[in-house]
TrEMBL record, chain A:
Alphabetical list of Pfam families matching this protein: ETF (PF01012), ETF_alpha (PF00766)
Alphabetical keyword list: Electron transport, FAD, Flavoprotein, Transport
Coiled-coil stretches: none
Family: Belongs to the ETF alpha-subunit/FixB family.
Superkingdom in the source lineage: Bacteria
Residue span(s) of domain Electron transfer flavoprotein alpha/beta-subunit N-terminal: 3-181
Transmembrane portions of the chain: none
InterPro entries, alphabetized: DHS-like_NAD/FAD-binding_dom, ETF_a/b_N, ETF_a/FixB, ETF_alpha_N, ETF_asu_C, ETF_asu_C_CS, Rossmann-like_a/b/a_fold
Protein name stated in the entry: Electron transfer flavoprotein subunit alpha
Automatic annotation (TrEMBL), chain B:
UniProt keyword annotations, A-Z: Electron transport, Transport
UniProt xrefs under Pfam families: ETF (PF01012)
Domain Electron transfer flavoprotein alpha/beta-subunit N-terminal per the UniProt entry, residue ranges: 23-211
Record gene name: etfB
Organism field: Thalassotalea eurytherma
Family: Belongs to the ETF beta-subunit/FixA family.
InterPro entries reported in the protein's UniProt record: ET-Flavoprotein_bsu_CS, ETF_a/b_N, ETF_b, ETF_beta_N, Rossmann-like_a/b/a_fold
SUPFAM superfamilies: Adenine nucleotide alpha hydrolases-like
Keyword Iron: no
Domain of life the protein comes from: Bacteria
Protein name, per record: Electron transfer flavoprotein subunit beta
Length: 308, 250
């Protein structure tokens, strides 16, 4: 059995979550190949070759794949699919975008967002925003799977896999990249940070998120937000933690002025330690917090910053 | 331009989900159901395109038993012109849903198909992409802005690090993210009017598609409970606990 794992990257950096997706592949069992599809992405290829337990790194370095458009990448993966029984990708924005396209082209279902591997055809995945956990057995011969990285531990990077250059260059010609508008930040990526501090509706406005910045700087934390804060226009959507935003599981998650709606809990309840700061002692967030502090955040945050 | 909007009937997002005692599935008996929130955003976007003069007709389609006609009526009240129900008693996989929708796309020849990015029950996030693959169309998933421009549509997408804009040839598939728009409430006269708008019913079995399931649901369990911890009295105590008890800061 062979497994193809799609590498998430931005042409310059391999996303660390890929290492966790490789761990899911190892749990399935079989020869693991990685696929790097991009353009001028040698640094990613170098990093991919060091991923432990990998047989080959397939590299499709071509302008057609520069922005990893779903139409082109799915065609590429389809061209390679014959050699693999399992095709895996991390459930990040690139994988979520093109993988169902691969599945449909192969005429198979996709098992989305798995958090556990029971066997080569049976997987565990959250449904209803994580309020129920389903165990599903795929009946298709080929399995197309996206992996929730937070549920797996990263593999080591002490390998030296063979790198194989591919000549594939399919451009479907029906879509084009126009522009990227990426949030500039000195802080770690939300998905990769070991500490996350998030603000909710209790922050009252976008300016008050500055109160989180000093603490984030001291802890090396990423800053997140609840959907309520995003909906209220305080902060952009890429900061959203929750069912409809990012799923995070850092060592320390600090929820500030967040009541703890089901949809927010779905995005952070696998964090190792959860701290809740909220002035409402009845807020549901306290039911999942390891440490709760019932206090006004406008008093608490400056004090916390000074004492860290 | 005709816009096709597939929608799904799901558990209302405010309802707390319960797993059946025999762990066979989630218990939906006597539970309030609603149009999937992302599908509602899709309907709203189609209505806005029509109000802007870009769309000429909006067709809503849903696949399910007779009860999903309620959600189709909701879509009609919000501004869809007519509706199609593909009737089935089975819960179908996303791939089979996409195959049925492909048949509707073949019949209706829409210029744009707008779907929710995922349903809040199965959380699969795949039907739109699958429909795009089956129809050979380009896709703009997780859209926060949709601008039709001649024979192309520019879609701004919510991606991990921020936003990405792509230009797609029409016809194309768009899936909605939360910030695309804020759906309106249906007005009473519109709800009354919706009752008289056309709603065609077609049988899923009449499309000549093998709809057999692609996966078996073996078990559904409640998630592991996380128990509440302690309430600390002060910032000092919090910092002390994080340092010495949890050991997550130094």
């Amino acid at each position: 059995m062979a497994i193809l794992v799609y590498v998430e990257h931005d042409n310059s950096e391999l996303k660390a979550d890929t290492l966790k997706t490789v761990a899911a592949a190892q749990a399935i069992g079989g020869d693991i190949d990685l696929l790097v599809a991009g353009h001028n992405c040698q640094a990613v290829v170098d990093a991919a070759a060091t991923v432990s337990g990998v047989n080959k790194v397939l590299v499709a370095d071509n302008a057609a794949y520069e922005h990893q458009l779903a139409e082109n990448v799915s065609a590429l993966v389809l061209e390679l699919a014959g050699d693999y029984e399992h095709i895996l990708s991390t459930a990040l924005s690139v994988g979520k975008n093109f993988m169902p396209r691969v599945a449909a082209l192969l005429d198979v279902a996709q098992v989305s967002d798995i958090i556990g591997v029971e066997s080569a055809d049976t997987f565990v995945r959250p449904i209803y925003a994580g309020n129920a956990i389903a165990t599903v057995q795929s009946l298709d011969t080929k399995k197309v799977i996206t992996v929730r990285a937070t549920a797996f531990d990263a593999v080591a990077t002490d390998g030296s896999a063979e790198v194989v250059a591919l000549s594939n260059a399919t451009d479907a010609g029906i879509s084009a990249h126009v522009s990227d508008e990426l949030t500039e930040s000195e802080r770690p990526d939300l998905g990769a940070a070991s500490v996350v501090i998030s603000g909710g509706r209790g922050m009252q406005n976008g300016d008050n998120f500055k109160l989180l910045e000093g603490i984030a700087d001291k802890l090396g934390a990423a800053i997140g937000a609840s959907r309520a804060a995003v909906d209220a226009g305080f902060v952009p959507n890429d900061m959203q933690v929750g069912q409809t935003g990012k799923i995070v599981a850092p060592d320390l998650y600090i929820a500030v002025g967040i009541s703890g709606a089901i949809q927010h809990l779905a995005g952070m309840k696998d964090s190792k330690i959860i701290v809740a700061i909220n002035k409402d002692p009845e807020a549901p967030i306290f039911q999942v917090a390891d440490y709760g502090l019932v206090a006004d955040l406008f008093d608490t945050l400056p004090e916390l910053e000074s004492k860290l | 331009m005709k816009v096709l909007v597939p929608i799904k009937r799901v558990i209302d997002y405010n309802v707390k989900v319960r797993v059946k005692p025999d762990n066979s599935d989630v218990d939906l008996t006597n539970v309030k159901m609603a149009i999937n929130p992302f599908c509602e955003i899709a309907v709203e976007e189609a209505v806005r395109l029509k109000e802007a003069g870009t769309a000429t007709e909006i067709v809503a389609v849903s696949i399910g038993d007779k009860k999903c006609q309620e959600q189709l009526r909701t879509a009609l009240a919000l501004g869809a012109d007519r509706a199609i129900q593909i009737e089935t008693e089975e819960t179908l996989d996303s791939l089979n849903i996409a195959k049925l929708l492909q048949k509707i796309v073949d019949e209706e020849q829409p210029g744009l198909v707008i779907l929710g990015k995922q349903s809040i029950d199965s959380d699969n996030n795949q039907t739109g992409q699958m429909l795009a693959a089956l129809t050979g169309m380009a896709q703009g998933t997780f859209a926060s802005e949709v601008k039709v421009d001649g024979d192309k549509v520019n879609v701004t997408r919510e991606v991990d690090g921020g936003l990405q804009t792509v230009a797609l040839n029409l016809p194309a598939i768009v899936t909605t993210d939360l910030r695309l728009n804020e759906p309106r409430y249906a007005k009473l006269p519109d709800i009354m009017k919706a009752k008289r708008k056309p709603l065609d019913v077609k049988a899923a079995g009449d499309f000549g598609i093998d709809l057999s399931p692609r996966a078996t649901l073996l078990k559904v369990a409640p998630p592991a409970e996380r128990s509440a911890g302690v309430v600390v009295e002060s910032v000092d105590e919090l910092v002390e606990k994080l340092k010495n008890e949890a050991k997550v800061i130094s």
